[in-house]
Amino acid sequence: MPSRPYSRSMMRIATLTFSEKVQWFYRYSLKLSSSLVGGFHIIPIHQGYWINRTATEKTAEELQTYVFFGKLLGKILLEGLLLNVRLSIPLLKHILGVPIKLSDLYLLDETVHSSVMWILGNDNTAALGLNFTIEGAELIRSGTDVSLHDGNKELYVTKVVQYYLFDSVRVEILKIMEGLRSVISDTVLHVFDFKELDLLLSGLPQIDVDDWRQHTEIRFYEQSSHELLVIEWFWEILESFTQDQRGRLLQYVTGSSGVPVEGFQGLTGMDGEIRFFTIQLGNDVSTVYTVLPHASTCLNR
């Protein structure tokens, strides 16, 4: 059966330690954001992931990847992990059952949004020669035979929005929700709005160096002037980094490139306990390998 590989993956995740789960979700996030996964694509305006409606018709096995993805979202929410990539606002709204609006279409396709706004704001739309179809799909029953005109243009726009934001990805959305609801109930989900859900799944959108600095533990070797200078150099370099570079450094030390919704005060170690980011200075060059991280550490040090 197509679902077996994903069932085995979920059972394997359940047996992982907290640190192994962090690593696993980070690798999965990289895979999701790569071209290897054709089920999602990133939308330029919001920089969030949306279902790939342009993909060829999906097989039953391919649809199971959406069920699996839904289950992973549930695990992330229940266990306080981070996805390390952001989901699009329309997808977050679907997860919460929040009504989709015309403005959400702008996030997916600026050109289509501009076209329907023009239709709403202008007369003599019959001259466009359009009917109630998009990409060969009928927006209403017998849509091929129904022409667009000023009397039905509001219905037309409503159906266009519904097509792009739901009808064209209906099966995939339902599969995601099937997986998600098998892990977490709608009652729990509906506590959040889509902005809060975004933060819980993906963490803070920006890495704030001031917050990082405020919630960092410094372990001096002798607290000399040259050690203080080294610390200042570290923060100066971090300030000069781009958001991507900061995320890479954070991932290298902690195992995750995301910052929890609580900020750096909520940073957890690989053991699942709250552990501040730690800078430890040493004097013995021969022991530097044991001090510097050579992989993500359970102590965020």
Defining key terms:
301 residues; mainly alpha; Hect, E3 ligase catalytic domain fold; Hect, E3 ligase catalytic fold; 3 domains; 6 strands
Structure summarized in a few sentences:
The chain contains 14 helices and 6 strands. The protein is mainly alpha-helical.
Account of the protein in words:
- Residues 23-301 form the HECT domain.
- The structure is a single chain.
- The chain has 301 residues and is mainly alpha-helical.
- It has 3 domains: 4-98 and 169-202, Hect, E3 ligase catalytic domains (Hect, E3 ligase catalytic domain fold); 102-165, Hect, E3 ligase catalytic domain (2-Layer Sandwich); 209-291, Hect, E3 ligase catalytic fold (2-Layer Sandwich).
- Helices cover 50% and strands 7% of the residues.
- It is built from 14 helices and 6 strands.
- The protein has helices spanning 4-15, 18-32, 60-79, 89-96, 102-108, 110-121, 153-165, 170-181, 186-189, 194-202, 209-214, 225-240, 243-254, 288-291; strands at residues 40-43, 48-51, 133-134, 137-138, 216-219, 277-280.
- It has a two-stranded antiparallel ribbon. The protein has a two-stranded antiparallel ribbon with strand order 3-4. A two-stranded parallel sheet has the order 5-6.
- A hairpin with a 4-residue loop joins strand 1 and strand 2.
- The two termini are 44 Å apart.
- The model has no long low-confidence stretch (mean pLDDT 82).
